[in-house]
Amino acid sequence: MAHPVKRRFDFMSGILIKNSLGIIILVNNENSNVLTELNYYLDTHKEFLRNNYAVIGVTHNDLKPTPSLNEYAKFIEARGESWPVLKVDARSRDDMMKLVNQLLAQTIRLG
């Protein structure tokens, strides 16, 4: 389970995603419960994601290579979803722009 401080701002997520095209979820691959965390955020935003899009950014993949991007894709597919998963460095403007561009491309492509 995630540290309680992370959850204390969950009430804001509804406010932040209102009128959004989609969401970008960043997960830290060093977290021992990273798939549980991803599952939590996908479940939390399940209603929103019925009509909107998501992109998953995996950080710290260089420090802990598992789960692999393929494992994330299989995990998401097992949920009946199909969200892009990208390896990113959260400190890199270019990597963050890749996530934004992927979300925009998904919105344009899928309508």
Question: What's the alpha carbon Rg, rounded to whole Å?
Answer: 14 Å
Helix proportion of residues, in percent? 40-55%
- CATH third-level topology: Rossmann fold
What would the principal axes of the Cα set say about the shape? globular
Biggest beta-sheet profile: 3 strands, parallel
Mean pLDDT, to the nearest integer, reads: 86
Structural class, by secondary structure, is alpha/beta
Note the beta-strand portion: 15-25%
Number of strands: 3
- Number of helix segments? 6
- CATH homologous superfamily identity: P-loop containing nucleotide triphosphate hydrolases
Layout of SSEs?
Blueprint: H1 4-7, H2 13-17, E1 22-28, H3 34-44, H4 46-49, E2 53-59, H5 69-78, E3 85-87, H6 93-110
Parallel strand pairs: 1-2, 2-3
